[in-house]
From TrEMBL:
Catalytic activity from the UniProt record: hydrogencarbonate + H(+) = CO2 + H2O
Family matches, as NCBIfam families: PRK10437.1
The species this protein was found in: Inhella proteolytica
The record's free-text note on cofactor binding: Binds 1 zinc ion per subunit.
Cofactor(s) for this UniProt protein: Zn(2+)
Pfam families assigned: Pro_CA (PF00484)
The protein, known as: Carbonic anhydrase
Function of the protein: Reversible hydration of carbon dioxide.
Swiss-Prot/TrEMBL GO biological process terms: carbon utilization
Length: 221
């Protein structure tokens, strides 16, 4: 095994020992069950470590990550995660988290050709094309971050439109969908306030979210 990977095992042993020292019995308690309150749907980017940046321990956050934090209606992977989180774990909150200067969003905006991933990023390009009129009015230097936010709004809305979430709301189960953005430059989360706790919240929250993005980015012209 290479030196680099040895280091990972060594760090892992240190981490497990420190965790057990802080909270004796930590790992054996988790063996019994996981009861996370939150499902995090974020970007695969290595600079956005889900648990770490909200200070949550193993067992406290259910996580799904992919390039550009997409929720595609036919993606069985994401849909299965959402179903297990809602039906099995009964999470209270589903949070779609984008991040500033997202490489996937940047590539989609520019129409870069990177290979297989272009097909995945086509979904972000659909968001770009849907909001082309707004994006054109935003100064070029700010467009990536504006599209990051627009993408979060669309993906949060996609979560609301899944059969899993619609069925949960239909039977009166409490699940709130949110859209946040993480700032790579300062490590801070920002709530885009597309917050939906039921089917009637979805369109108004989405519309208001859109208006806020437009106001914020056009004001900086
Ligand atoms: Zn990203």
């Amino acid at each position: 095994m290479s030196q680099d990977l040895d280091e990972l095992f060594s760090k892992n042993r240190d981490w497990a020992a420190a965790q057990e020292k802080r909270q004796p019995g930590f790992f054996t308690r988790l063996l019994g069950q996981q009861t996370p309150q939150y499902l995090w749907i974020g970007c695969a980017d290595s600079r956005v470590p889900a648990n770490e940046l909200v200070g949550l321990l193993p067992g406290e956050l259910f996580v799904h990550r992919n390039v550009a934090n997409l929720v595609v209606h036919t993606d069985l992977n994401a849909l299965s995660v959402i179903q297990f989180a809602v039906d099995g774990l009964k999470v209270q909150h589903i949070i779609v988290v984008g991040h500033s200067q997202c490489g996937g969003v940047k590539a989609a905006l520019a129409g870069a050709r990177l290979g297989l991933v272009d097909n995945w990023l086509r979904h972000v390009q659909d968001v770009r094309d849907q909001h082309a009129a707004l994006l054109e009015k935003i100064p070029e230097a700010l467009r990536v971050d504006a599209l990051v936010e627009l993408n979060v709004l669309e993906q949060a809305r996609n979560v609301c439109h899944t059969t899993v979430v619609k069925d949960a709301w239909g039977r009166g189960q409490s699940v709130v969908v949110h859209g946040w953005v993480y700032g790579l430059h300062n490590g801070l989360l920002q709530d885009l306030r597309i917050t939906a706790a039921g089917p009637d919240d979805v369109m108004p929250a989405y519309q208001k979210g859109l208006e806020r993005v437009a106001r914020r980015y056009l004001a900086e012209e």
